[in-house]
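User: Predict the full complex structure for these chains.
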Amino acid sequence: MTVAATTAASAARVFVPRDSAACSVGADEVADALRAELARRGQSVQIVRNGSRGAFWLEPLVEVATPAGRIAYGPVAAGDVPGLVDAGLTTGGEHPLRLGPTDAIPYFARQERLTFARMGVTDPLSLDDYQAHGGWRGLRAALAAASGADVVEEVVRSGLRGRGGAAFPAGIKWRTVAATPARQKYVACNADEGDSGTYSDRMIMEGDPFVLIEGMTIAGLAVGATSGFIYIRSEYPDAERTFAAALAAARAAGCLGRDILGQGRAFDIEIRRGAGAYICGEETAMLESLEGKRGMVRPKPPLPAVAGLFGLPTVINNVITLASVPVILDKGAKHYADYGMGRSRGTLPFQLAGNIKRGGLVEKAFGLTLRELIYDFGGGTASGRPLRAVQVGGPLGPYLPESKLDTPLDYEALSAAGGMVGHGGVVVFDDTVDMARMARYAMEFCAHESCGKCTPCRIGAVRGVEVIDRIRKGKSRGAQGDGQAALLRDLCDTMVGGSLCAMGGMTPLPVLSALDHFPQDFGLGAPSAPSTPGMKSKGT
Amino acid sequence: MTGREGIAVPAAADAAGDAITEAIAAHLGRAGALMPMLHAVQDRLGFIPADAVPRLAAALNLSRAEVYGVVTFYHDFRNAPPGRHVLKVCRAEACQAMGSDELVAHLTGRLGADVGETSTDGAVTLEAVYCLGNCALSPAVMLDGRLHGRVTARRADDLLAQCGAPR
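Assistant: Here is the predicted structure of the two-chain assembly.
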């Protein structure tokens, strides 16, 4: 098939995503059916397994390249394939599943894709594709820079903040690593994307892995590190396989290794696999795990930027942060910083998840509202029932009621409204949700995943489950749970103030927000006065 | 077989011994080698046999307590062989919003096994997982490393049938 396609210059190109989410609803079967159907008809067509465009409700989304641009069809089932080919799929023919030009689909047309510019457009493992779509331009700029410090300052000027959740300015962190003398420094990429409702890191590793390699390499050049590690969670086997293949291809092409792009600079990357511990997404627990130990949180200071992996200065950034660096170096800090609002510069790939009609990845400049995201892009709930609560920022993010949906998505504005941006995951719940049960789950998850190092988290989470169980039991008997609710608030206060890391320190946020906004689910009266504590100090 | 250091490693008679020997040989000398070694053992055997603890400890100059501590810290590492198939069900928030609790109830009923257990015919081990990164297509499960989205009770039954479970 490939040979036929390369010899026949006019062979049509059909795109079927290889992204694991697309495959989870049948993309592999569609690709197989297409291959068989086209072979049966003797048509010479090249099937490209691209990344996902990120509109998962349209997956499997099949595209065909035509002189008028790419035409999309979706969602395609394997059984639709013969009919599609009959309708002239390979030339963009009419069919009930035809969605028109991909770029004109409103879900995509209204996005501002910087980090995800190539996502779904290219074959993730084709270096030619990567190069043809702006690849390595950021790296070339970094190699041409007079010094690593210039690269660091460019990242500082872009305003890029850590996209993993803590939102610390990436350039400032890099500055610290660059300024700390050491025989060896490291770049450690945190690909332990454990927050429910998030999948942007997975998409990068599966759909545009070279951009992450490029970003990590730029970080290495900027701070003087020659060795990189990427810690990929074990729940992402496809991401690990694709990223490993991308590393091998980049090395073979001289984009990684001892002599990057022939410029005499060295950097290489090694993959390490997690083992199902949520806490290893916390940067110091990840370092412990990379060192082959239990994923126990380290007290700070020392900062990992000064004494990180194996005790040496380490840049730790998550996947999206590092994958956003190439476009900053390529197009300049100002281009990136021109997007966004306030102190939240650039774009964020938001991820719509849970009970949502049109779930998927939406990269937009900071500043749009949750309502625009959930209704204009997401189309409301999947069930068609009224929306009741939204959790933004993963399992440590507070639950927001419908009344907070007009808050702009910006680190500071959302924090002021009692929320947090975190890693950009937006999980939607309809009105069938029992918020007391979700509060219990937050504590249960913390008890399950606590590393056990500090008492407020290790024991507090277990006690939290017990207290919520008592409140729920009391509710079923019609008893007033005010005393127990006060106890729960007191416990949360201890966890917020006394925990070593965000796991114990922020688990109270979903719990208290559920209690504040949905007291009736706990069998309590009207919404009570105290708001979620510790928000402003814990946000960054 | 010869280890990295050129020291002859005693040939192990059984598959488990071989897997441990090979895991040590493949990763000895790497920084932080314990996790890659444990993964190599479990990739081959499906679990970490008790024998692995003293052998990895000796190879890495760690105490047995340290190795045991690592094995037991991580949810992935099993101390007993799983069933012929491993079905991981996501129980995190996004999947809960789309009925994963009901899906878990359906699966435990069908398999006659609780989460963390194996069906009595040894066909399927049911495990909980907290996010598979398929949150726009919830509820999600992973069967033998392959991701499935929008898993209704009917689709779950199809997957179980693939594992040889009776309808």
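Residues 215 and 322 of chain A are 5 Å apart (CA to CA).
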